[in-house]
């Protein structure tokens, strides 16, 4: 009986030790931004398989569960409850900033850490920031400061026209870029809003017609994902992309692939990562990630995939260092932690939980450059970069934004 009891206890302890650690991906599998969502899924699965192949985390395998947000904030919030109910101890995902804010707020109510993988609106880590949210991607201000430096130097005294998606990311992107290009005067540099998420083809046609009639020399498309794709196709039909400099503040591989690289030649924007970055920064880990991703999926990774991959590795590292799955302990381990993974050095800043990293100003390559590479994915050229500490808002700026929003000057 003693032997039988010992054997039973041993089996039970082993079963407990091998019980998986559950994490949840809250991503757009359908609707707006589904391509960026798929990239996140692929990056996450690669990271989890690599960690599990090395023995897992705290001696246990990691298991991923997922929910489709359809890029709807209310659905994303419900997903948080559902995944926590299934035992998820960490949540990540989103593309839309509104989704990130809604999901993270529900996670805060459940005292569970949430990583905004993508979500560029400033308020994600300023007015709407709190103790349980971390943002891996850059903010609208970080993009605008890098892009503004380049545009001011290379397109001085030009007339701008802004076409902006009518939601938080669009507003903060336009506001930030106007400030950093000295184009705040809306009489000289006009703009229009297009509905989000329900814009029609006529909305893009009308907006671009106004841009053309304004005689603008620089057209800023503060649009993202499918909205940017539709606007660029319309601009190509009108010939605007061949006679006017077009700027897309957040210019991603997935958008270029959906639109067609030939339609986007010369478009300027920013990225916080793309597959050429590890070569530029001489990052061995980044090069290996790109190779492993390419071997597994038959294509090179987009920034959304790199963000999801980074989030999982950084969360796992914080769990290992804190020897805990408790969100409070993991948060302490992440705050002010500096690391180097897929590029140069980055840091999870303590006071606002913004990931501070280098921002790259990029321009879409011509067809010859794209097809010359065996992958046919050599879409982007880096024309300028800005270090994270210069791109990100200061602590004083952050406190002023929080004060204006009547929020406490420390994360709660």
UniProtKB/TrEMBL annotation:
It comes from the Bacteria. The keyword Repeat does not apply. Residues 20-366 form the Leucine-binding protein domain. Keywords: Signal. The keyword Signal applies. Pfam families: Peripla_BP_6 (PF13458). Transmembrane segments: none annotated. Belongs to the leucine-binding protein family. This is ABC transporter substrate-binding protein.
């Amino acid at each position: 009986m003693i032997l039988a009891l010992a054997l039973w206890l041993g089996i039970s302890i082993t079963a407990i030790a091998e019980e998986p650690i559950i994490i949840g991906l809250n991503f757009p599998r359908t609707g707006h931004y589904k391509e960026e969502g798929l990239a996140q899924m692929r990056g996450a699965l690669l990271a989890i398989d690599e960690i599990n192949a090395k023995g897992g985390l705290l001696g246990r395998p990691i298991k991923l569960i997922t929910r489709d947000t359809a890029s709807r904030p209310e659905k994303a919030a419900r997903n948080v409850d559902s995944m926590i109910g299934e035992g998820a101890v960490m949540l990540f995902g989103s593309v839309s900033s509104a989704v990130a804010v809604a999901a993270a707020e529900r996670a805060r109510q459940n005292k569970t850490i949430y990583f905004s993988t993508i979500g560029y609106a400033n308020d994600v880590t300023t007015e709407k920031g709190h103790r349980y949210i971390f943002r891996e991607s850059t903010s609208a201000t970080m993009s605008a400061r890098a892009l503004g430096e380049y545009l001011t130097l290379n397109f001085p005294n030009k007339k701008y026209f802004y076409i902006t998606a009518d939601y938080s990311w669009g507003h903060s992107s336009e506001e930030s870029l106007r400030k950093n290009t000295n184009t705040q005067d809306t009489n000289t540099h006009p703009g229009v809003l297009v509905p989000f998420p329900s814009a029609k083809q006529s909305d893009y046609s009308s907006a671009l017609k106004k841009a053309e009639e304004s005689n603008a020399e620089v057209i800023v498309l503060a649009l993202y994902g499918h909205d940017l794709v539709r606007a660029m196709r319309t601009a190509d039909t009108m010939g605007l992309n061949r006679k006017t400099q077009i700027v897309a503040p957040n210019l991603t591989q997935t958008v270029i692939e959906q639109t067609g690289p030939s339609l986007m030649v010369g478009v300027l924007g920013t990225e916080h990562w793309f597959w050429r970055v590890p070569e530029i920064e001489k990052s061995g880990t980044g090069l290996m990630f790109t190779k492993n991703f390419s071997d597994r999926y038959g294509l090179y990774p987009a920034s959304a995939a790199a963000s999801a991959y980074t989030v999982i590795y950084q969360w796992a590292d914080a769990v290992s260092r804190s020897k805990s799955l408790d969100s409070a302990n993991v948060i302490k381990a992440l705050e002010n932690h500096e690391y180097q993974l897929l590029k140069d050095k980055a840091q999870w800043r303590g006071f606002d939980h913004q990931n501070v990293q280098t921002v790259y100003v990029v321009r879409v390559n011509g067809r010859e450059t794209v097809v010359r590479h065996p992958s046919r994915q050599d879409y982007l050229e880096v024309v300028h970069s800005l270090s994270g500490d210069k791109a990100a808002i200061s602590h004083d700026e952050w406190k002023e934004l929080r004060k204006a929003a009547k929020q406490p000057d420390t994360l709660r």
